[in-house]
Write a structure and sequence with these properties.
Layout: H1 2-8, H2 24-34, E1 46-51, H3 54-70, H4 76-88, E2 91-98, H5 107-128, E3 131-135, E4 153-162
Antiparallel strand pairs: 1-2, 2-4, 3-4
Helix pairs in contact: 2-5, 3-4
Length: 184
C-alpha cells in the first residue's frame, strides 16, 4: 500500500552505504518515476544529471575545493566529508530545475514540482531497497562551474543513492491533529 511506503521512506546517508553498484535500469526507473510528478501548465521543470564512476570523485574534489576557496575559516572535517561522501554513493543525481523561459508560472511552482519529482524518486528508491537522501549545500550555487547547465537552469541539490545494510531506526511524527485547522 502506498501509505506504508510513504511511512517507510527515510533519509539514508552516504556513511551508511555499502559498496554495491546500482543497476542502470534501476536508475532509469527512478528517473521515470520522477518524470510523472505533477506540475502546473505542464512545464516539467525537473532536470537531472546522473553522476557515477570517476565523476563522483571529481564532484567531491570540486565541492571540497570550492568550500575551502569561499569559506573564511574552512573546517578540515567538513572539507574531507565533501570529498568522501560522493565516493561512497552508488550514484548521485544532481537535482536541477529548468525555469520556463516564458515565466508562465511563478518560479516557486517549478521548484515545488521538482521537489515532487524528487519525492517520487525517493519513494521508488524505498521500494527498491536503495537508500537515498537529498543534500542541498550552499555550494550548489557554484554547480554551473562543474555541471553542464542550460540557460535558466539551476541546481537545487544532490540526490545521493546507495545500498545499505542494517535496520533503520523507527521514525515518529507529531500527530497531524496539531497541524490542521478544520474550517466548516
Amino acid at each position: 500500500m502506498i501509505f506504508d511506503l510513504i511511512k517507510e521512506r527515510r533519509s539514508i546517508f552516504p556513511a551508511q552505504y555499502i559498496e554495491k553498484p546500482i543497476a542502470k535500469r534501476d536508475i532509469e526507473l527512478i528517473l521515470e518515476a520522477a518524470n510523472w510528478a505533477p506540475n502546473h501548465k505542464k512545464t516539467e521543470p525537473w532536470r537531472f544529471k546522473v553522476i557515477q564512476g570517476t565523476k563522483k570523485a571529481e564532484l567531491g574534489e570540486f565541492l571540497s575545493n570550492t568550500y575551502i576557496d569561499i569559506t573564511p575559516k574552512p573546517k578540515q572535517i567538513k572539507a574531507k566529508k565533501l570529498i568522501e561522501n560522493p565516493k561512497k554513493a552508488g550514484a548521485i543525481i544532481a537535482i536541477c530545475m529548468q525555469r520556463d523561459p516564458l515565466e508562465s508560472i511563478p518560479e516557486w511552482e517549478e521548484i515545488a514540482a521538482t521537489a515532487m519529482a524528487v519525492q517520487n524518486m525517493w519513494l521508488c528508491c524505498t521500494e527498491l531497497g536503495i537508500g537515498c537522501y537529498w543534500s542541498s549545500p550552499g555550494l550548489i550555487t557554484y554547480m554551473d562551474e562543474f555541471l553542464p547547465m542550460e540557460e535558466g537552469e539551476k541546481c537545487l541539490g544532490f540526490f545521493y543513492m546507495g545500498y545499505y545494510d542494517g535496520e533503520l531506526p523507527e521514525r515518529t511524527r507529531k500527530p497531524i491533529s496539531g497541524k490542521v485547522v478544520w474550517l466548516d
